[in-house]
Write a structure and sequence with these properties.
154 residues; 30% helix; 2 domains; binds zinc ion; alpha+beta; single chain
């Protein structure tokens, strides 16, 4: 594999070497498979795999690269694999990255859905209703007090 001697920005010359598509193929592969690659920590080390078996498979999936486009994984946490890659402009990529990851579970691991999430009106923060109820029960047990505060959970 040419990973070891390919540095960032350098093109690899082979039979199809030097094309933007081939360089993208090699660089993406190296990011995922070569621990010496400068981007490996953000890819291979995070478990992102490069699953195309050949450049031909890669090219069949993506086609020719539009000018100034780079490869993007459709699901940012997914692998480089058929069905999860596309050419994207820098702007598309920035949009995709700035989207916050959806929070799916509370700190205690309860699944958060619309039905189990309480939005605190003053701050718009989301709170887990299961935890909130539990906190209320604990609070009443500890203090012996009753309060309607914890029941206002619509
Ligand atoms: Zn919870």
């Amino acid at each position: 594999m040419p990973c070891n001697n390919l540095r960032h920005g350098q093109s690899h010359m082979g039979s199809v070497g030097g094309t933007p598509e081939y360089n993208t193929y090699i660089r993406a592969k190296c990011r995922c498979t070569n621990p010496k690659n400068q981007d490996y920590s953000n890819y291979g080390a995070k478990g992102i795999k490069f699953l195309f078996k050949s450049f031909e498979e890669f090219f069949d999936e993506l086609g020719k690269r539009p000018k100034n486009y780079t490869i993007e994984r459709i699901n940012n946490l997914g692998n480089y694999e058929p069905g999860n890659v596309k050419w994207a402009s820098r702007k598309d990529q920035a949009n995709n990255r700035s989207k916050p990851k959806p929070i799916t579970h509370c700190r205690k691991g309860h699944l958060l859905t619309k039905a189990t999430t309480y939005i605190i009106p003053s701050t718009n923060a989301r709170q887990c209703i299961i935890c909130k109820r539990q906190n209320g029960r604990d609070w009443r047990k500890r203090t012996g007090k009753t309060s309607t505060y914890y029941y206002n959970l619509t």
